[in-house]
Amino acid sequence: MYPPFLPFIAIIALTAGFSLNSAAATEPPSPASQNTTTLPQRGLHQQQVLRRFGPPQQRVAAVGSPPIIRWSYAGYTVYFEGEFVIHSVPDSVYPPLFK
What we know:
By secondary structure, the protein is an alpha+beta fold. The chain has one domain. It contains two helices and four strands. It is elongated.
């Protein structure tokens, strides 16, 4: 004879699997899964970025020491340490929490 709680465990296991699958189907793709081949790569000089990607929509002045500079383009942001790219980040696919 089966233990009396066995059917409940089976039901919980089955419904948990369905709820995980439905959540994965409704979530937008994560920024990390986006194609990043068109972003400026680490080590490029500011002049190289300007030539390849054009002028940014916004330039944020240097902050801190060493100076970190931020250039905003449509769809991504480029961070510089001094005159060299240290990171390029695609904009989030998630809507802002607060407006």
